[in-house]
Every structure is written in C-alpha cells, then in structure tokens.
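Support case: zinc ion complex. Customer-provided input:
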Amino acid sequence: MPAFVTRPWRYSCAFVVGLLLAGCAPAPEGLSFPPDPPSADSDDPAPADEQCPSNAVAPAEDRPVIALEFSLAENLRIVTGSETLTFTPDLPTEELVFRLVPNSPVSAPFGNLLTVTDVTGKEVIDFGYESADAYPTTPGGLLVVDLAEEVAAGDIVEVSIEFELELGDGTFDRFGTADGVSWWASGFPLLAWEPGVGWSRDPLVTLLGETSNTQAADTTISVEAPEDLEVLMTGAQHRPESAGDGRRVWTSRETAARDVSVAAGKFDTADAVAGDTEITVGVLPDAETDAAELAQETASIIEDLEEFFGPFPYDTLSIPVLPDFGGGIEYPSSILLASETRVVLVHEIAHMWFYGMIGNSQFRDPWLDESFASYAEVLEGSSELDTADLDIPGDVGDSMSDFLDTDEYFSVVYGKGRAALSAAREAVGADSFDAALRCYINAQAWQIAVPEDIATALSDLPEAIQILDDAGAFG
Ligand SMILES: [Zn+2]
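Agent response - structure generated as follows:
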C-alpha cells in the first residue's frame, strides 16, 4: 500500500512519518550491499525445481483477459468507462464478484464514486451490490453479477460492464483531481477471484491501505482525454491518436496486471532505461521535481533492487508525479508519486515485485507486500534498521481487520515486519537468505502467495522462520 510520509490531516500518522523519514543512511552493518549472487556450486542442497525455479514462472495461460476503455470529461471529474472481461474460473461458480474501491470509507467522503450502469453477457441474468462496509452514500463495495447457471471449472465466462467514475478533490488517494490533472487507479470493477479459494468478499476498511485480492490479467487499456493532456498509465504505451473534437486516445497493454493506474495531466516527461526496462517520469508545470533526474534515480534503484530480487517484472515503468500530498501508491508498472522522498520511491519500486509480480490478499496477508517493500528500503539503504521495532506489540501476519487504526497497522506491518525480515537475514546470513527469497519470488511469480510459501522457501533456514514466527508472521 502506500508509503505515506506527511500530511497527517485525516490520519494521525506521526509515527509513520518517523518510520519513513528514518533517513537515507547507508545499509546497517551486517547487511551487505549489493549482495553476492547465489553461488552456482554452493554446497547447500538445492530445493526441488518446483520450489525454486531458476527464473520467475510465467503468468498462467488461462488468466483473465481484460479490456478497459476510459473517457475523461472536459471537466476532468467524470470518467465514463467500460470493462470487457474473459474469465476462466478454476472452481465452479454461479456468480461474478467485483470490488469497487472508490466506494470505500476512505475514498468516497472526498467525492469519489463508482457506479455500474450496465452488465451484459450471454450468461448474465442480473447484477446488484453488496455493502462490504462501503461508505453509506455509495451503492456498495462489491458488484455481484448473477449467472444463469453454474459455470464449471475451466469454462469461460465473458461479460461487459459499463460504469461511471466520479473523481473527488485531490488528496493522498488513488483517485482525485487537482489543477490540470486527474488520476484514477483501481477505478473500475476489480475481479475478486483467488484461484483455489474463490471470491474475495473482504470488507473495505477505514485504514489507509489496500484490501484487494486480484489475479494478474492480460490487460489492454484505452484512455480518451482532452488533447492538451498527457496520459501516463499502467502498461507499455503507444503514441496517442487524435479522436477529433479536441481529444486524443492513448492505449497500452500489460500482459499480467492485477490492477490499472491512469493519470492525465499537463505532464512534461523524461525517459531513462534500466536494463530492459523503459522508465517514463511526468511532472506537472511548476513542479519542483526534475523529471530527467527522477527518471535516472528510478533506474538506479531498479538496478539496485534487481541484485536482490531478480529482473524487474515489467518492460516499462511510468511515474506521474502528482501534487505533494505526501506518499506514493504502487500499481502494476506505474506509481502514483506524491512525495519527493527517496525512501517512498524505493518502497513503491519494490512493490513491483511484492504485489505486482507476487500477488497476495492485501486484506488477509498485507505483510506479504508491505513488510517486504519496507524491507527493501533497508536493503537499498534508504531506511535504517531499528531492531527495537521487533518489540512493537502486535502480529506482523494479522489481517487488515485486526488493526485498530492506521498507526498500528503501519507500525506492525511496515516497521516490525521490516525489522523481522532484516533480522532473519542477518541471523542466517545474507547469501542464504537472499537465495531462499529468490526461490520464493520465482516460484510465486504472477500468482497469489500465502505465508506458507515463505515458510517453504525458508525451510532450510529454521532460524529465519523462528524470527518471523516470533514476530507473528505466520499467525
Ligand atoms: Zn507499500
């Protein structure tokens, strides 16, 4: 979820500010940087190939195929959209469930609202909403589509959804408008299927954090917007084409995306390259950020993190720099960056592996993305390790419904989780820990991981498991 650094206006995030601004210090003693690559002739017994593939496994052949079309109104506050979905469940089902993130109690009070206007498809007989603790003025937090008959595992369902998204005033959130810029991420009905488990009907929470659980989908995106705006979004973008009437259409594709982020504004852009990854940064007029410098810094961070986690998961990374609402929010191959702070940039880039490539239930197991993205800050040298964080009360492995408030959530999952992973690495040695973590990354790529997958990867390093278990990571 977001790294949040400032503006504790609605949330009392003072502790988080302290955590995240801990400094741009070098890596603590005992944490080598960059690490030595795993030795090919190591004496350690190699785990089975299935538990430790040498490269990231490919996305599932039968993953969802999603085509999104957005049209941004001239007032920059209304997005009219459609979503066409081809879905192959691996368990039988008589319904489809989608998460409506804009209707959450965090986002809706600022004027964000997602309304479904129609759902069509050969098997569709009706659709409606379920609350899932959505903000009461909204129609609901879940869209439920009833199918005429049960769909067998392995059969294909195709539906089209029409919707309207209203964007509220800009805040530190995934939706908003400000002077000459609009952004929306999770701004469409999110298919909420977990393979092997079924539908995720988790409540929308009042904490500042994500709660989605989505498969990586083969996703194409089309955005029509006023022609004076530049669009930066998830996926490899093509050059815009004129749509007439003073508007242009921007398109992109991401072959394995769990979600989509779009920003449209008067961005000045600059590019950089990190290995096989093309980076595009966009800054608004009068922004203090130098787009070219930020693009180069991003490339440098990607190269640093690749030493630990393996190749960057996407061909592209776009970073629209929003007004300084304080923080950053990760999306597949895109980051909504609303902070000048390096540690936020490192954290969000690390999420491209932990959330983007290795999925998780952000409601049930938030530590699988947040603790690891926070741990990456320490590896990369942007955050200092504070071993006292291991004594923070609370279980790292708790769900979003177990935390009293955002402060507690941040301190336990970000702070204690980061400390526990760092302590585990130090206890068993950086090389062994990094190699085991690489097994987890490669084995769980493009899937939805669970905590047991971490334990499996660390099975030859019981001391590391013990430290994580003592921190409550495994429930
Ligand atoms: Zn995060």
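The chain has two domains: 3-58+355-470, 65-269.

Case will auto-close in a few days if no follow-up is received.
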